[in-house]
Amino acid sequence: MKYNQIFLLLLTSSLLVACGDSNSPAPEPTQPPQSQYDYLDVKMKPTAPKSGTVTVMLGEFDNKITQWILDNPTADLNKDGGVGLLDAHLAGVYNDDKESIEVDLSDMADFLATNPDGLGAGTARPDIFKPGHFSAFDLLRYLSGGRDDLELSGITNYDTTGLGTYTFNVSFDADQSGIFDPGTEETNNGNWHFRFNAHGGDFNRARGNMQGFSPSGEANYIRMDEYWLQDGSLITFQPFSDEMTARRQWIQRQEVLNFEASGNQPMVPSITALTFDANWNPSVQAQANDVKITAHNHRDDIFQPGVVTVMDAMISAQEQLNGVSFSYWDTLSTGAKVGHWAVSSIGGKRNSGLYGWFSEFHNPANKPGDPDFSKYPNCNWGIDGSQDGEPRVSQEVCQRDWAGAFGGELVHMLPDVYPMNYGYNNFSYVYGSMYDIFGPTKRDINNSLVWEYKEGEQLDKVTFQTFELPSSPVGNASLLDEAHFGWQIADCTLCHNELKEPLGHGGHSWPINSRDGFSQSQPYYCASCHGANGAPKAHGEDDRCFFCHAGEKLPKKHGDASTKVLYKGADKMMGNKMYGFNPKYRGVPADEFGNHKPIEQRWNSRNNDWDISRVFPDPYACMTCHQQPE
């Protein structure tokens, strides 16, 4: 099995399924007492905002770069070992800009509260969403109600389609002529669906990256009326081919039939957690079979009680999987507004730095590693959407709708906001590595990782210690407690320094961690004798603390670790070099429409993926003082 392309997923444990609400009432929720929530690394209750904005594009995006790459699969014009957007630019091919609309969610809520189309005051799916929260279908309702160039018609209710979702036709005056041109795909077209991109912070500019991201978002098989509309999202409404609609609806229909066959009980026949050796041979870390999914209502700020999500599927399978856990990702160092639970461990194997679990949802044929979408898709199914149908999907249609590393069953979504009320076929979690994106030319895995890097790059290789904290006084050193005048102040050097105590530590020099190559005082080195000074407990993570502890969550009074650094100059930005260990999916920075745009400067916290604080080096200082719970 080859999983190379799925390792390009961001480590957001992005969860990929096609799912929906039941034609029958949702299962009765089961809510364990709080004491049983041991699978949550952080004991908190999210509250999703009801306000914000989303960006909307109407109509299909003309992706000239992707089409050129599909038409010229061997045209490696810059001789870098792969075919990508830089080659397209050398051939004179660029994408044009496309107009977008900014929609205020509060304005949308006010408009839909009037029940303008008879589908309900507020959301059209009050069985799924709490008041004040909406779906992508609700967004389409809002746009069609307020624009002369967009019209919904032929709407069939979700509980009568056999798909668990609304069907409808769209008319769109694309040329702004004032009329819907009869006999074209602009008028009464039942093939309209949506693409999406979640808020990505700095990564928003990489929507055209040839690792598989489209400027218009990820095509998908998700029910439009179940996709939660989140602040900062990009939504593109567009017509697809008859074949794409048939494929999506065939998948949704199979889910409904399976759900009904199991007595209206959402099920997953198999959930598998996979790890890989040096040669990418998979082994099973854990597996669960015949999983009955029950609701745990961890996002009852968004969903109605009883709505089942992928997170619920993992929790329901945790005993068979030998344990699962979830971290809460808020706003990240990239500026991405996430606000979701993500899988942090399965079967005792935990995320660590750029290693971590992400989902690899099988394609509808249930063939791992062979998804519907890829850079050069095959579309090995019938035009009716079924696996064995005839005739088969043409290559022209296949490339138009299925080209891209992500889409269909393989999209960037998080488990707590993905309804799974019909269950799913089978899916896997894969323990992957993002360290490879930094470009090793040799990868030797025995007991440890040894990399040789290309282009003669000089790396500053160091090994640091994480110290044990004393449980009793060490020699004459006192263990700090609440009586300490600086209790819970992280930076000892604010008071204990050469200006206030010139002779240093007890009349001697200040202790320095010279073994690790440092030449300055470090509070976490002090903690190795004096204790953690009341530092809060950790929450399971053991690396890249700066990834979440940034922005408003940047540590206070942690020396230079509480500051930011401005890196300037395109030549200094590693991200400007071709990256990715799979030549087929290498990428370079791009703008929002997919054209090359080098990174010129970047603000980062002092601890980052390229540098560390000398006073509070991440994660060594963090893991010394912030001990993991017992």
UniProtKB/TrEMBL annotation:
Source organism, top-level taxon: Bacteria
UniProt key word Signal: yes
Signal peptide annotation: 1-18
Organism from which the protein derives: Shewanella sediminis (strain HAW-EB3)
Alphabetical UniProt keywords: Signal
InterPro entries, alphabetized: Multihaem_cyt_sf
Keyword field contains Signal: yes
Name of the protein in its database record: Uncharacterized protein
